[in-house]
Amino acid sequence: MLTRLLLLGSKRYTSLLPLLASGSVAPIQNILLSANSLSKAGLPTLLSQQQQRHKMASTEESNVPAPAPEAEKPVAEQPAAAPPAKEKKEKAPKEKKEKPKKEPKQDQADGKKSGGGAAGDAKGGLGLKNSKKDNFGEWYSELVVASELISYYDVSGCYILRPWAYAMWEVVQGWFDKRIKQLGVQNSYFPLFITEDVLNTEKDHVEGFAPEVAWVTKYGNSTMDKPIAIRPTSETVMYPYFAQWIRSHRDLPLRLNQWTNVVRWEFKYPTPFIRSREFLWQEGHTAFATQEEAEKEVLDILELYRGVYEDVLAVPVTKGRKSKKEQFAGAFYTTTVEAYIPETGRGIQGATSHCLGQNFSKMFSIQFEDDDRQKQHVWQNSWGLTTRSLGVMIMTHADDKGLVLPPRVAPKQVVIIPIPKANTPPEMVQAMMDKVSEFTAALEGAGVRVVTDTRANYTPGWKYNHWELRGLPLRMELGPKDMDNKAVVLARRDTGAKESVSWDDVVARVPALLETIQADMFAAAHARTADCTEVCHSFEQFMTALSNKHMALTPWADEEEIEEEVKKKSTTPDAMGAKTLCLPFEAPPLPEGTKCFYSGKPAKNWALWGRSY
């Protein structure tokens, strides 16, 4: 390839000599610059893509921090350095569609244009090079880019959410936002910046976030008199104004939510969606007159979080309460939904709902006058769900072909692909396209999210692989034989099963099949995780469970010292130590006299332990 480029450049330079003499073209140094740009768009670009894959590698199985990924930027800039039109014409024969074996090259070009989107293996084909079972970290890192969910940014730990990913977040937003509004919660927005004095108001709270707080110390070339923090969370931003707005019991409850971004300058290894320095979330902040009202809301919100994961994302979760050591800094107590990834043997916190008690209201003087004209401090909650939820869903369902999206969260639920043959008469092709339009309108009228793929420059096989990589739940095929039989073929992404459906039944069958897929995906995920919990009554059993990449359910004395000691003692050269994921709400009875699995002291509760993200 390089030799061909050099020969081509030499011929062009020779042909330009008469023009240079006449002054009809740009100076020779500009021509050399143009050749250099061509070089930058060729071999070095391919090298940077390989480097990018290494930089994207997750470090779940390693203690070595992943280097900051910077390969995405050159790929995104590639169109600006594209070869001139003449050179494109000379390369055109490589993309003849009548030769199906050339399809990977077409995809490689498409991947370049999209900044790493539909790219596949090293040969440029669709699909993934890494295996979920054999190399989970590399597989995940490759998948989120190849399926066009994210692009890497030139600030380490920050990622660009591409439209396919953001559309999923909008589905989650819409589902959750509708339901919190039914509870009486209102949306609002508070500033991104926090003064140092306000951030330090609640000592325990700020100490919990201090290592992750990013500070603005300069504007232009000037140093600021006082640094300003970028919010890691908004308790200290909002509560001074709660104190202004709440005067009487008639001002309660105050229930606010905001959809926003936060910055936490993580020192741990960044992983797209799972752990990043900037992420999107919702954070709810509420105030009540009584403890009973506050605690009821904590569980109401936790149930909605369960619904996001299980009903929308088809991911099974465990509801429970965090240990004192793991609870939110400054909270009275924290409740959580915990997910689990069997392939890595790690738990992952899905979302949390905190009862803050009266701690913050005392710090910020948030008081109300009760019916007896006595001053009382309010009871407060805060609760949050982030784009991490998408990462958990991806890890749970995706396979070696790409994403596998539950229908309820999929931006598009059905792709309709007409498959005319080369010898199909034009009138038959037109009739096929008309039928595609008819099905699209009818399905959209039934509430189904539809996309059609009528691109003539890609073969049906390429299209199938493309939409499989992006995880679309259902594919509808319509070919000449289907036109003759007045039927379509429906193919499921989750199982690969196909069925023929008559035209008259399509509008009824597709929504029903999507619901079946949703239920089947949850059932399959639940079955995979159901066997990943072992009941352990000794530390030896506990370590065996961890070695099996399982969670351990143990009787526990509920002491922070024990939790810290277990974490240290369960650390191995190859894996981090285990911690409590939660104290599950649903647990076996705890007979009187049951001993703690580690200390031998009387057990107070059951604890679910595991290694975690």
Percent range for helical residues? 25-40%
Strand content: 15-25%
Number of E-state strands: 23
Tally of contiguous helical segments: 20
Structural class, judged by helices and strands?
A: alpha+beta
Order of the strands making up the biggest sheet: 9-10-11-23-22
* Shape summary: globular
Largest sheet, strands/sense/barrel: 5 strands, mixed, barrel
Radius of gyration: 29 Å
Contiguous runs where pLDDT drops below 50 for at least 5 residues? 1-124
Average pLDDT taken over every residue: 84
Distance between the termini: 44 Å
Question: If you had to describe this structure to a student in words, what would you say it looks like?
Answer:
The strands form five sheets. Strands 9-10-11-23-22 form a five-stranded mixed β-barrel. The chain contains 20 helices and 23 strands. The radius of gyration is 29 Å and the shape is globular. A hairpin with a 5-residue loop joins strand 18 and strand 19. The chain has 613 residues and is of the alpha+beta class. Helix 1 packs antiparallel against helix 2 and helix 8 packs antiparallel against helix 12. The chain starts with a helix and ends with a strand. It is 39% helix and 22% strand. The longest helix is centred in the C-terminal third of the chain and has 25 residues.
Brief summary of the model shown:
The chain contains 20 helices and 23 strands. The protein is of the alpha+beta class and 613 residues long.
Note the main attributes of this structure.
20 helices; 613 residues; globular; five-stranded mixed barrel; alpha+beta; five-stranded mixed β-sheet
